[in-house]
Amino acid sequence: MKKNTYTVKTRKGVTLIELTVVIAIILLLISILFIGARFYIKGADKSACIVNINGIQKGARSYQNLNPTVDEGDALDITAFSGTAAVPDQEAPLPVLPVCPTADTDYTLTATFPPAGTPVAVCADGDYGGTTIEAQADGDIHAPQSTDGW
Fold it and tell me: Membrane-crossing residues (predicted)?
């Protein structure tokens, strides 16, 4: 009996379709990574903005507590509690007035010392209701959910 001596040629390497599928999968994974990084950065900026507002709030309340002549409704002067303190021999509660990390703008301050629980500052990029409809829909408002404990 005669044995089959046919040899089957196997091709080494990948086809163009396989290479295209691999490249498409890699591009899909990279795009998912960039989308996730963008949302991470937006969330981090929003959190930093809220922390800055909290710091301004605490600086204003500290100044108000250190100076018994300052009451609710009195004019709010940012230079009194940030930078160089207006009261001699006292360090300013807030050495430097922070800026919003997203918009690189200063915070909008109230004209007077508000009652406790009311924010002293709001972010120009997302205040309490003065934001754009797009920002409200995205949940991209730079305002704390609650000011309890401030």
Answer: 21-41
Amino acid at 116: A
Structure tokens at 116: 């406790």
Q: For residue 144, what are its two tokens?
A: 């704390």
Mean pLDDT taken over the chain: 77
AA identity, residue 46: K
DSSP state letter for 122: E
Report the chain's terminal Cα–Cα distance, integer Å.
96
- Name the residue among 51, 49, 80 with its Cα closest to residue 64: 80
DSSP 61-76: HHHHHH-TT--TTSB-
pLDDT in tens, 40-73: 988 888 888 888 888 888 888 888 888 888 888 8
Cα–Cα distance measured from residue 48 to residue 42, given in angstroms and rounded to the nearest whole number: 10
Residues 6+ apart with CB under 8 A from 130: 122
- Stated pTM of the model: 0.67
Cβ–Cβ under 8 Å, residues 51 and 107: no
